[in-house]
Structure to design on (739 residues):
């Protein structure tokens, strides 16, 4: 048998195995109103909205939309609500620490990104300072978003969701906090190294491996509360968010250890490993963390269980299986084994399966209540983020096709896609979740609701400019590059207006982040006009 | 799903499948790759220059992997033939790159074999390529009133030369330029060396 036959048969075998496995877990796969979907609500709570981030007026409006004007007189089980307040209290401190770190990293990352962007069209700006050279400040930007903002926000939200989902108090919060200290200390040291030109030389893996040890140790400690809290859970059903978070918290340390293992990898094998890691950290870490968040907050705000919940089972396992094998699409046309690239392209297209499962869940859950979106800060960010997940993934599936990739591979189109995924999806979802969680953590309302509007519109408009500009610029760049009759410099000059547009969009995004960080700080210091704070927190259904 | 063990073991199995396909199999397939006869290992200077390339983050704008003529006209731009795994035998870490904000550098040593050009270009890219958006690296150079014994003076077009004194390349710049000059993979390779 030749390699192709062997590969083809193992591919068919493993996909069949996957579907048999999913089948073995099914319970009424296509049932509309699955019981599992309701585990995030107290008895009698369905139909009641929850949004601590909204104003009183917002909550009333939200409730009106969700109840379709009709009044709902069922009362949620007060005992369960009290237990949930206890659960929230148990996670408040660790979650708070993670979110504070996240916000600091977000602001730093924005300035690093904006500086890199400006430098691309002002190449003689700030060239005398080594750590500000494009290659270093851009890498600082990447590492701050990839190991600072995104994971800190994800961990904070995950730790906060855990006790709610498992209906118990958080166990092992102290380990998580210690883990946060280790992780952040290693990250700071890693950034100092990168700034000084010391790095391991691979994209996404620049932080020296010696420091990587501390990141792994920190990550493992941050994962401990998951295991400890699972152990004392009082809820039998594991809600879909737990699957995603649980798997991601196991996946990440393994990925990182394999990738960072010193002396193991060589030549182009290292390149395949590099992108195995590169796409898995996206697909098997940030993506599941943000999906877990969406699957919780979207239905929770609306007081409406996920519709066609059982599809999420298919979505989860298909993602776990297909996403792991797409890394080769970063090396299309490269000097790596052909079969591996082909396999990755096929699995990239197969990713449409889990993406459609998620999209169906989100669409059906929002159907008929779209009018609720403007009234809830959380819903705004998360519904938009969920939509961006669908878009970035569908875009990614096409981008992985050889014909498209030939044009886009080495261009700014990839950077636009990267931001659609990591910004449009992950970052937006995290913003939404933070607006929900912080009032619960602090027992305080967001002091200046208008700032939430400002934040939202600045980042949405800024990001639209960023994404559209860079996408067009990238395509033009790619077309110039594959046209042998045009000199290479054409592919550079053609991008200039779009690189400038990106700086404009990026400046708006950065301004939005400053607004957000200011508001967050005001909240953390319990600053600002005191309104009905304690009322909504003591009794979420006062409205 | 109600069983956390099923969840975690399932998750570990999918990750194992993923690692086998993208890491373990390529590991075994590529283990036996030998360097082409004409490929030389990096000299100590070149190896240090390569480290400098990593420090400055050149890889974020420059690839080192021309595509095959059947896919893109990279060879017509002088970037060279499609590479084979053996070409990277001495590369640790790999520097394939995924961006072409600037051109591919796999054969830059063959395209620009002059160290004076390389140094001048590192000092101020726009002295050689008018619309380039590459940053200069002035901190790898020194402005001196006059050159001392053994100094490598950078020759620059008059418009970019300092009004007084000379620009001298620091050892870091010289090593980086030597690494760039070592990037020459124009030797022929047998067809069979391609990874399938
Ligand atoms: C079905 C899902 C997806 C597929 C098939 C996919 C596919 C791709 C492809 C083909 C590339 C370009 C590789 C290249 O030409 O160099 C890419 C890059 C990238 N994608 Fe995706 N994508 C998907 C979803 C996502 C999501 C959800 C995120 C964010 C969480 C994301 C983040 C990125 C990033 C950051 C890069 C740039 C990596 C780099 O060059 O550093 N993608 N993706
Ligand atoms: C939290 C928000 C952000 C996230 C999660 C994020 C994420 C990323 C990622 C994953 C990359 C690597 C892309 C690749 O290698 O293909 C990247 C690169 C970059 N980002 Fe961001 N980014 C964020 C905000 C910003 C902002 C506000 C700007 C300002 C303009 C910006 C400008 C850049 C630039 C210039 C690059 C380098 C692209 C290149 O190498 O050519 N980013 N970012």
């Amino acid at each position: 048998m030749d390699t192709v036959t062997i590969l083809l048969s193992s591919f068919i075998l493993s996909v069949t195995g996957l579907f048999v496995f999913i089948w073995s877990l099914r319970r009424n796969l296509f049932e509309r109103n699955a019981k599992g979907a309701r585990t995030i609500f107290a008895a009698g709570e369905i139909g009641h909205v929850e949004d601590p981030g909204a104003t009183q007026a917002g909550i009333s409006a939200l409730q009106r939309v969700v109840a379709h004007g009709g009044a709902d007189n069922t009362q949620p089980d007060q005992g369960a609500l009290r237990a949930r307040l206890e659960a929230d209290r148990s996670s408040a401190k660790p979650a708070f620490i993670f979110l504070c770190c996240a916000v600091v990293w977000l602001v730093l990352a924005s300035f690093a990104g904006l500086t890199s962007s400006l430098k691309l069209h002002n190449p003689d700006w700030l060239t005398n300072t080594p750590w500000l050279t494009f290659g270093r400040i851009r890498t600082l930007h990447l590492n701050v978003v990839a190991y600072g903002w995104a994971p800190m926000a994800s961990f904070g939200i995950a730790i906060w969701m855990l006790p709610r989902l498992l209906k118990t108090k958080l166990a092992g919060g102290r380990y998580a906090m210690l883990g946060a200290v280790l992780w952040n200390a290693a990250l700071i040291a890693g950034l100092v190294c990168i700034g000084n030109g010391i790095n391991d030389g691979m994209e996404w893996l620049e932080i020296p491996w010696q420091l990587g040890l501390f990141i792994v140790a920190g990550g493992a400690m941050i994962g401990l509360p998951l295991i400890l809290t699972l152990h004392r859970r009082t809820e039998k059903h594991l809600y879909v968010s737990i699957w995603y978070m649980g798997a991601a918290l196991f996946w990440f340390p393994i990925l990182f250890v394999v990738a960072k293992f010193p002396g193991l990898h060589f030549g182009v094998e290292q390149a395949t490993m590099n992108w195995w890691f590169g796409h898995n950290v996206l697909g098997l870490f940030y993506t599941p963390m943000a999906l877990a968040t969406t699957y919780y907050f979207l239905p929770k705000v609306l007081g409406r269980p996920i519709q066609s919940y059982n599809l999420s089972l298919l979505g989860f396992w298909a993602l776990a299986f297909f996403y792991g094998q797409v890394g080769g699409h970063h090396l299309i046309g490269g000097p790596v084994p052909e079969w591996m690239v082909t396999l990755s392209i096929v699995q990239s297209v197969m990713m449409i399966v889990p993406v459609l499962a998620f999209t169906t869940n989100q669409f059906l859950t929002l159907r008929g209540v779209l009018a609720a979106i403007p009234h809830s800060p959380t819903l705004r960010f998360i519904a938009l983020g969920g939509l961006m997940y669908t878009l970035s993934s569908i875009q990614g599936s096409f981008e992985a096709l050889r014909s498209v990739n030939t044009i886009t591979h080495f261009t700014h189109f990839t950077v636009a896609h990267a931001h659609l995924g990591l910004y449009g999806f992950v970052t937006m979802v995290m913003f939404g979740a933070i607006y929900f969680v912080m009032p619960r953590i602090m027992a305080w309302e967001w002091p200046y609701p208008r700032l939430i509007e400002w934040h939202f519109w600045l980042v949405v408009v800024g990001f639209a400019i960023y994404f559209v500009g860079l996408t067009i610029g990238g395509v033009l760049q790619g077309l110039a590059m594959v046209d042998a009759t045009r000199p290479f410099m054409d592919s550079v000059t053609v991008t200039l207006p779009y690189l400038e547009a990106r700086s404009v969009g990026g400046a708006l995004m950065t301004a939005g982040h400053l607004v957000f960080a200011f508001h967050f700080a005001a909240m953390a210091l319990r600053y600002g006009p005191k309104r009905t704070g304690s009322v909504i927190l003591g009794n979420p259904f006062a409205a | 799903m109600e069983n956390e063990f099923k969840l975690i073991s399932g998750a570990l199995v999918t990750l194992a499948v993923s690692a086998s396909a993208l890491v373990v199999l390529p590991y075994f397939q590529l283990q036996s790759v030998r360097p082409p006869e004409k490929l030389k290992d990096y000299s100590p200077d070149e190896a240090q220059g390569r480290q400098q390339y990593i420090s400055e983050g050149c890889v974020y704008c420059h690839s080192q992997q021309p595509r095959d003529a059947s896919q893109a006209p990279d060879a017509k731009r002088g970037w060279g033939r499609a590479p084979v795994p053996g070409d990277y035998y001495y590369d640790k870490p790999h520097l394939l790159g995924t961006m072409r904000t600037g051109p591919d550098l796999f054969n830059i040593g063959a395209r620009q074999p002059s160290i004076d050009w390389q140094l001048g270009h590192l000092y101020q890219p726009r002295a050689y390529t008018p619309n380039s958006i590459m940053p200069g690296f002035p901190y790898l150079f020194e402005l001196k009133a006059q050159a001392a014994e053994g100094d490598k003076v950078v020759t620059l077009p008059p418009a970019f030369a300092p009004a007084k004194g000379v620009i001298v390349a620091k050892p870091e710049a010289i090593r980086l330029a030597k690494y760039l000059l070592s990037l020459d993979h124009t030797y022929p390779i047998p067809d069979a060396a391609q990874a399938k």
Summary: Residues A 106, 109-110, 113-114, 116-117, 138, 141-142, 145, 149, 414-415, 418-419, 422-423, 427, 502-503, 506, 509-510; B 60, 99, 101 surround protoporphyrin IX containing FE (ligand 2) (CB under 6 Å). The two ends of chain A are 70 Å apart (CA to CA). The longest helix of chain A spans residues 78-121. Chain A has 18 helices and no strands.
